[in-house]
Amino acid sequence: MIRFESVTKRFANGTTAVDDLSVEFLEGGITVLVGSSGCGKTTTLRMINRLVDPTSGTVSLGGRDVRELPAAQLRRGIGYVIQQAGLFPHRTVLDNIATVPTLLGWGRRKARARAAELLEVVGLAAESGKRYPHQLSGGQQQRVGVARALAADPPVLLMDEPFGAVDPVVRTLLQDELIRLQAELHKTIVFVTHDIDEAVRLGDRIAVFRTGGHMVQFAPPAELLARPADDFVAGFLGAERGLKLLSLISLQNVPYEPIAAVKTTDTAAQARAEATGRWLLAVSPDGKPAGWLDVDALDGSDAIGQAALTPVRGLTDSDSLLSALNETVSSPTGMAVRVDAAGVLVGASRDDVVHAHQRSLA
Amino acid sequence: MIIEWGWLTTHTDDLLALTLDHLATAVPAVLLGLLIALPLAVVAHRVRPLRGLLLGISNIMFTVPSLALFVLLLPITGLTRTTAIAGLTVYTLVVLLRNTVEGLDSVPAKVREASLAMGTGRLGTLLKVEFPLALPVIMAGVRVASVMTISLVSVASYIGYGGIGQLFTDGFQRSFPTPVLAGVVLTLLLALAADAVLVLVQWLCTPWMRKGARA
């Protein structure tokens, strides 16, 4: 889809930003370009929409050299999202989003209608459309940035550290939103970041760049984490490389067994009768895990819902092996509690089962 | 007091005519200055090596005494309003050029880049993004240039297009202070009025500046 053939970029001051890059990015997937600053990842991205032209080599998009089209026309077909959104401060949110449709000559009404539609897609309230960018929070501005890039429904989306300027909580939220959007839209996305966790979270493929514009490794996240090409990549992936790898593995193939549980509406006597040890899982009346009950600490015969429960997190099949390990360590019974998609208790995995599964992957 | 109020009441028509005449010189001078400064500022903004040169030239022109400038222009444009306008235009450039360059500098690079990356051309980006965002700084320059020009018009009395300034020569020649004082007050009022109009224009042109920070 996006193809670099022996692409080199040297700047006028003599620095080589990108050195003989040949690579092809997946159609309909997220390719993350990662590396420390000055490694050429942003230059690589900007050569796709010709904000930068290569010194030598060819960049092609859908089989066509990007230089075949006039730059402006090419760019209208490529969504672009940058850090701090780069929104036009003098235009309303709606007009910001309508930028490319307007340039494409859709007419004001149609462009505005499309913009309003996109507000909803990126999870913004309709009334925020009439505001100006400075009236929104950083996270909201970033959503507008994404909406603006999607406005003309381009097949390709370039994102240059789009979530770099927001706090970690909002960043995670925006990453989730991007994953959700991508599941619906299947865009070809090239995403630049210096945050390896973000790369592992979002990437279908990750390209690791080293200073001087060399691409050192290009691989799916699991392969990258399991088999880094060299010490540089291993160092960049960080000390918790193994844990990051576990975060990529789902619980789908990790077995679980039935577990005894009491309802929070049951009485202490019922709990004592059910208990085989000190700890017993309590579920709410609709079957969702409520917490671990300390049977020894129970007194009287009131409903146990009033007792203090140690918090529990029910894991679905799509949760990661890392979260299961975390649960086995943090729960008083060494059990990772499993739930179905609706959050209803289905069983639990013992710590030795989780460990065995993890060892089977190595 | 030395003011003869009677003179004022019998000369209201003259005062009005002189005020309009004053504006007929000042307004075209500022507009022409803007017309010259905008493209020059774009060049100065984009071509770094030319920036110092252009700003330097406009500074040097500003130091030429106004009377000398009119004399220098006389052989070319003669005793016409054009001479007065041309001379005053030269003085507006120093403020307008510098402020427009600074205004363009103040446009965030990310915003300019986003505009280009969306597929807006360079001219489109200049007209639809850069100038609107530079407007507050440009307008600050226009306000200074306008007030300055309104006060400078009087100097053109020497060539007969001084507007309100004619009152000064008149009063001085007859040792009659009333028209001089009337001229000073009128110039002041005109400058204040022009400034108020420009503030209003800017307010109307920049709706995004009127909205407070995020709710």
Explain what this protein looks like in three dimensions.
The complex is a heterodimer of chains A (362) and B (215). Chain A is α/β, with parallel strands linked by helices and 362 residues long. Chain A is 34% helix and 24% strand. In chain A, the strands form four sheets. Chain A has a six-stranded mixed β-sheet with strand order 6-7-8-3-9-10, with helices on both faces. A four-stranded antiparallel β-sheet of chain A has the order 2-1-4-5, covered by helices on one side. A four-stranded mixed β-sheet of chain A has the order 11-12-13-14, with helices on one face. Chain A is globular, with a radius of gyration of 25 Å. Chain B has one domain: MetI-like (MetI-like fold). Helix content of chain B is 80%, strand content 0%. Chain B has helices at residues 5-10, 12-46, 48-63, 66-77, 81-105, 109-117, 122-152, 165-173, 177-205. In chain B, helix 7 (122-152) packs antiparallel against helix 9 (177-205). Chain B is elongated. The mean pLDDT of chain B is 90.
Structure characteristics:
heterodimer, A: 362 residues, alpha/beta, four-stranded antiparallel beta sheet, globular, B: 215 residues, mainly alpha, MetI-like fold, 9 helices, elongated
Largest sheet of chain A: 6 strands, mixed
What is the CA–CA distance across the termini of chain A? Answer: 33 Å
Task: Tell me, rounded to a whole number, the average pLDDT of chain A.
Answer: 90
> Which percent band covers the strand fraction of chain A?
15-25%
Unreliable segments of chain A (pLDDT under 50, ≥5 consecutive)?
none
Query: Could you spell the SSE succession of chain A in H and E letters?
Result: EEEHEEHEHHHHEHEHEEHHHEHEEEHEEH
Mean pLDDT of chain B equals: 90
Name the helicity range of chain B: over 70%
Structure summary, number of beta strands of chain B: 0
Class per helix and strand makeup of chain B: mainly alpha
Number of strands of chain A: 16
**Overall shape of chain B:** elongated
Oligomer kind: heterodimer
The string of secondary-structure elements of chain B, in order, is HHHHHHHHH
The CATH homology group name of chain B: MetI-like
Q: Spans of chain B with pLDDT under 50 lasting ≥5 residues?
A: none
Distance between the termini of chain B: 57 Å
